Amino acid sequence: MIIAVIGNSSCSPQEAKLAESVGELLAQHGATLICGGLGGVMEAACRGAKSQGGLTVGILPGQDSTAANPWVDIPVITGIGEARNIAVVKSARAVIAVGGSYGTLSEIAYALKGNIPVIGLNTWSLARDGQEDDSIIKVRSAEEAVDKAVSLAKRHRNHEIASLRSQ
Amino acid sequence: MIIAVIGNSSCSPQEAKLAESVGELLAQHGATLICGGLGGVMEAACRGAKSQGGLTVGILPGQDSTAANPWVDIPVITGIGEARNIAVVKSARAVIAVGGSYGTLSEIAYALKGNIPVIGLNTWSLARDGQEDDSIIKVRSAEEAVDKAVSLAKRHRNHEIASLRSQ
Amino acid sequence: MIIAVIGNSSCSPQEAKLAESVGELLAQHGATLICGGLGGVMEAACRGAKSQGGLTVGILPGQDSTAANPWVDIPVITGIGEARNIAVVKSARAVIAVGGSYGTLSEIAYALKGNIPVIGLNTWSLARDGQEDDSIIKVRSAEEAVDKAVSLAKRHRNHEIASLRSQ
Amino acid sequence: MIIAVIGNSSCSPQEAKLAESVGELLAQHGATLICGGLGGVMEAACRGAKSQGGLTVGILPGQDSTAANPWVDIPVITGIGEARNIAVVKSARAVIAVGGSYGTLSEIAYALKGNIPVIGLNTWSLARDGQEDDSIIKVRSAEEAVDKAVSLAKRHRNHEIASLRSQ
Predict the structure, then answer these.
(1) Which residue ranges in chain C fall short of pLDDT 50?
(2) What is the band of B161 on the pLDDT scale with cuts at 50, 70, 90?
């Protein structure tokens, strides 16, 4: 089960702590962590996952693996810049957003477009044409985020299998 | 001067009317229209632009040009799926969003990340960590949208030239 | 009718002359020229096309339009690096290669994969498992290249229309 | 150490056998195998790697993980179509080509452009402007391919570290 953690490449100490806890808990659940492979939230999440023996995948925007943070096990070098944001979320069964700016917003948008559940910690809120859009599942702790992500990821998988069987 | 129009590939008659007016006015201002090349808002905007002798560019997600709406002069076949959303907005000096769903939201996010002005007609509203983000310039008519877009596009260009000169 | 010209971003004076002639002749045939938008062969071809009043499209790898050569009318900013090579050839009904290194080879490969005719001037030769692959149509002059490209582009289009009608 | 195996999504029994041996040997050397994640050569290589307890990464072109062959441990869903070919080779320190058609040729071209060593088993031969280009290292067996790939991958890595130290 692959779960994405998204957020800024530079972040506050509080966000880093949250992201690190998310990484630790994902690894304890046996999930593989996928992220954009750089610093900030991505690095903290990878560090957390590795401290618990988890596996980490970093989908990098540029041309070389030296940009990866030191806790990335598998650096994927895309060379496609910010278009790599799509691969980060599409590869996951659920996405956890920690804070984040416009790059994170693009990832949230792509995940929601692809019906991939998004769990948010201090992140974006959306409204469309005056109506609130509550697709982002807001939570208040790393534990809640990972519990939601893992249970939705399992459900997401079952839907996929069911839809394959009915084809 | 290239200006992007973004929005859904299927849309309400009111949105189509708005988008068509936007296309007409952009062409009257001598702007080249760039969009995702498909139906709905994109098609209405292209139709409007062509009715006034404008030039239209469609950045298509798939593998063949037959998916382009009939008012696209220059179909660019990217084959990169939704990653083409980035090229739509990055190629423009300003972006006009008409309505829109999650695909449009990803385009808004990429434009704002790239400091490209976004003008919104009945589109998304954003808030981050409880704070409203008013980066999307909300307007109420096609005229207002195009006036804003054209004046911001000119300013955007002047900034670029100034920053080149100071290098 | 859109036709691509591909080749190195730095080139010999002879290649530049060939590419410029190709650009001139394409414009005289009323074709729109698409290319990677940078220097060398791309710039020479665009300069030739503009000298005859043609329209030029540059599919740029990076993040800003200032990298475009001065004869590009429509700079498309993809931000996807070398993956933009695919868009250059897929958008064309025929491709003319002038010289070229590995980037050009990737474009030739993508064009042949997509059944888009490739005409070669002093460019790559291919063999697979010891057998020559003569898919690249070798020619010796700009005139021959453009004549071949234009006639194959027309045939390519007719095939497309026929295949649409039979669907 | 990540090494890529590239080749057709449908292949002859001989090619499948070669690819499977390549996968087995890579896993025995402790290398992580990266590939395009689909059938044919990719599937055979992954099957070989898994039979020896190796780790496999599949960089998929489409939108869902069900297209991955059953021996892919980590399916990366890019949604960018054939542009994913770039990520397959750029993520590797060396590339082994088994047979292959134009898609494989595009991968060889991108690898050579990025100075990533390419080892070839019954694959493409290149010549440019009448001159043979011997950048593809031709070998005759899976053993020879993997030995070359592993030793070049190590050297490639040392170059990277040296170039980082001298910055």
Answers:
(1) 167
(2) low
Q: Using 50, 70 and 90 to split pLDDT, how confident is the model at B167?
A: very low
Mean pLDDT of A81-105: 97
Q: Does B82 touch chain D (CB under 8 A)?
A: yes
Q: Chain centroid to CA D154: how far?
A: 16
Map residue B155 onto helix, strand or coil.
helix
* C105-124 CB burial, b ≥16 within 10 A, e <16: bbbbbbbbbbebbbbbbbbb
The residue type of C12 is S
What is d(CA B125, CA C56) in angstroms, rounded to the nearest whole number? Answer: 37
Contact B7, B98 (CB under 8 A): yes
Distance CA D146, CA D26 (A): 6
- C20 vs chain B: nearest CA distance in angstroms? 22
Both tokens of D63, joined, read: 């939108």
Question: Could you tell me if A71 and A40 are in contact, meaning their C-beta atoms sit under 8 angstroms apart?
Answer: no
Which tokens is D99 given? 């047979």
ipTM of the complex: 0.93
Q: Is the pLDDT of residue A13 over 70?
A: yes
Contact (CB<8Å) D102/C124: no
Q: What SS3 state is found at D144?
A: helix
- Beta-carbon contacts of residue C118 (< 8 Å; ≥ 6 apart): C94, C95, C96, C97, C108, C111, C112, C135, C136, C137
What mean pLDDT is predicted for residues A76-88?
96
- Residue D97 CA to residue D147 CA, distance in Å, equals 14
How many whole angstroms separate alpha carbon B71 and alpha carbon B74? 9
**Could you tell me which residue, D142 or D64, shows the higher pLDDT?**
D142
pLDDT in tens, B41-85: 999 999 999 999 999 999 999 998 899 999 999 999 999 999 999
User: Which long-range contacts does B138-143 make (Cβ < 8 Å, 24+ apart)?
Assistant: B142/B18, B142/B21, B142/B22, B142/B24, B142/B25, B143/B21, B143/B25
Among candidates C80, C106, C127 on the partner chain, residue whose Cβ is nearest the Cβ of D109: C106
Residue D58 tokens read as 């599949």
% of chain D residues with pLDDT over 70 = 93
Instruction: Tell me, yes or no, if D64 comes closer than 8 A to chain A by beta carbon.
Output: yes
Chain C residues in contact with A82 by the CB 8 A cut-off are 79
Element (H, E) at B147: helix B142-165
CA distance D22 to D119: 11
Report residue B32: phi and psi, to 5°: -85, 135
Go through chain D and tell me how many residues it has: 167
Name chain C contacts of B160, Cβ cutoff 8 Å: 64, 66
Does A124 contact chain B (CB < 8 Å)?
Answer: yes
CB count in 10 Å sphere of residue D62: 18
Give the per-residue SS3 of B17-66. HHHHHHHHHHHHCCCEEEECCCCCHHHHHHHHHHHCCCCEEEEECCCCHH
Residue C51 one-letter amino acid: S
Look at residue D116 and give its three-state secondary structure.
Answer: coil
Over residues B9-34, the mean pLDDT reads 97
Q: Count of CB atoms within 10 A of residue A58's CB? A: 26
Higher pLDDT, A89 or D167: A89
Percent of chain A with pLDDT over 90: 89
SS (H, E, C) C45-87: HHHHHHHCCCCEEEEECCCCHHHCCCCCCEEEECCCHHHHHHH
Residue linked to tokens 């068509």:
B20
Q: What's the mean pLDDT in B135-155?
A: 96
